[in-house]
Amino acid sequence: MICSKRPSRMVAAPCGTCSIRKDHASPHQTPDHELVNLTAADTCVIFHSDGNPQNDLQAQARCHRFGQPKAVKVYRLITRNSYEREMLDKASLKLGLDRAVLQSMSGNKEGNNNGPVQQFSKKEIEDLLGKGAYAAIMDENDEGNRFCSEDIDQILQRRATIITIT
Known about the structure:
- One of its GO terms (molecular function) is hydrolase activity.
- Keywords: Hydrolase.
- Among the domains are: 12-40, no CATH class; 79-158, no CATH class.
- The chain is 42% helix and 5% strand.
- It is built from seven helices and two strands.
- The protein has helices spanning 19-25, 53-63, 83-106, 122-130, 133-137, 143-149, 152-158, and strands at 43-46, 73-76.
- Helix 3 (83-106) runs antiparallel to helix 4.
């Protein structure tokens, strides 16, 4: 946590469970406080995707914690035809493989406390393995290509797509 009025002042604690950290963080939970408070975040902006998709999911999950009263928004900034895009595609394939393998391991059993485990169709598993997790949930029409051809002002004015990954 860094104070904006006194940039040299930092508050740090050696671990997330110690009482020192809690004592320092508690006063900063109010919305009008000047210090940065990551536990109050409701927006996740991923501007540099990791090769391990679990790291990106962890960043998103930190915003979706217990007690979050606000709707959470996740933005991923990717440049078309770039190394970043290639990394995202590879991470998506890894995530798709994880989901397909975990689903096959769970079989038709009931989940722990979450009710029945979601079963994928053969087509969904083929999409997860062949295209990756993100491609499998995208729409099948040409909307993605139209979106990429628009300029940023058009996108910001009238385009918003919410993708829910469960």
